[in-house]
Amino acid sequence: MNSSVAVSYEPVSPRVTLDTIRLSSVSKIYGSGQNSVAALKELSLRLAKGSFTAVMGPSGSGKSTFLHCAAGLDRPTSGSIHLGELDLGKLSEDALSRLRRERIGFVFQSFNLVPSLTAAQNITLPLRLAKQKPNKAWLDEVTKRVGLADRIGHKPGELSGGQQQRVAIARALVAQPEVIFADEPTGALDTRTGKDILSLLREAVDSLDQTVVMVTHDPIAASYADTVVFLADGQIEDTMANPSSERVAERMTHLGD
Fold this sequence. Notes:
The chain is an alpha/beta fold.
């Protein structure tokens, strides 16, 4: 890794215990006038610490916009979003960037690994950008939990798709974020590998008290969550506790009816 990379660092705020992620009357409108499109409409939702929530809905329902706004990647047109007691709407762009680096983890379908870095370097990259020294004991624990202990020196091109996604999950976990946002994390994986990845996310919730919010189109993936939130036309149409893949699939066929 190039140790000459210099990134200014300043804590966003004192770290606080995350009780919930709270979205209050959040709307997101693209365009203006007759060409405007409301991706989210007065959406309100509370997500508890240590919970696993799946967000589902048909194409155009607002799933991706929800994730981008909740994770501080995009700003809502109106309404408020809180991470713990922190109001994201009051943060500057620089502060939002630091927040995402310090307190939020991301797992994407495309892995988003740096090809020239080893698995270990990819995992610790957000910490190094924040000028934080990785905790070796925790790094070892994370890599062991995700099954990468013997692949830590390999570069992404030397790893399978499932192993690359494990690197991405370890990268999200190593900074001990308050919440992990996962966007179709199994979409590029075969069924067996996808189940392994979902089991890792489930374990992060059960064993590490992690909070996970996952956008997915897959009823099987959603069945690993504690709760499924169904979106339709930018609004919450329903929620389901203790989901099964069969119940989720059935509910999806009637969304928007």
